[in-house]
């Protein structure tokens, strides 16, 4: 039995998703139809268990987002917010010239946007 590489398996899944039959895929790779079904089944099982972005481990399919990626985004968001807050504190006190007003406004808007982001 011919062993497929990871790239081959991704191609197999893409071909299957494009509507190719199991027979056409088996002829393309030179493997049996049962082997195509096995590779496709295993690929589908593993794709639902491991985050394709971070590859850090399994999580239940009922989770809308990978908990590892979500935690990374939360911590990154907090670091960005801290940096923006420190930047505002370093601005000179009022009265502002035009450039400082624009910077202050932009930093404030960025902070409010990040604080209101509800998907992270």
Notes on the structure:
α1 packs across α3 and α4 runs antiparallel to α5. The chain folds into 2 domains: 44 residues, Orthogonal Bundle (Arc Repressor Mutant, subunit A); 50 residues. It is mainly α and 120 residues long. Helix content is 66%, strand content 0%. The two termini are 45 Å apart.
Briefly say what this structure is.
The protein has helices spanning 6-17, 22-29, 33-49, 67-89, 98-116. It has 120 residues and is mainly α.
Structural class: mainly alpha
State the total count of DSSP E strands: 0
Largest sheet: none
Mean pLDDT: 78
Order of helices and strands: HHHHH
Keywords:
Arc Repressor Mutant, subunit A; 2 domains
How do the helices and strands line up, and which of them pair or pack?
Elements: H1 6-17, H2 22-29, H3 33-49, H4 67-89, H5 98-116
Helix pairs in contact: 1-3, 2-3, 4-5
């Amino acid at each position: 039995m011919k062993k497929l590489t990871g790239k081959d398996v991704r191609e197999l899944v893409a071909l299957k998703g494009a509507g190719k039959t199991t027979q056409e895929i088996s002829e393309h790779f030179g493997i049996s139809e049962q082997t195509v079904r096995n590779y496709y089944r295993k690929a589908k099982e593993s794709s639902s268990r491991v985050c394709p972005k971070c590859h850090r481990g399994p999580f239940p399919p009922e989770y809308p987002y990978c908990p590892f990626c979500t935690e990374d985004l939360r911590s990154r968001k907090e670091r960005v917010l801290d940096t923006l807050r420190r930047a505002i504190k370093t601005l000179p006190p009022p009265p502002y010239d035009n450039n400082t007003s624009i910077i202050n406004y932009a930093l404030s808007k960025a902070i409010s946007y990040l604080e209101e982001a509800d998907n992270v």
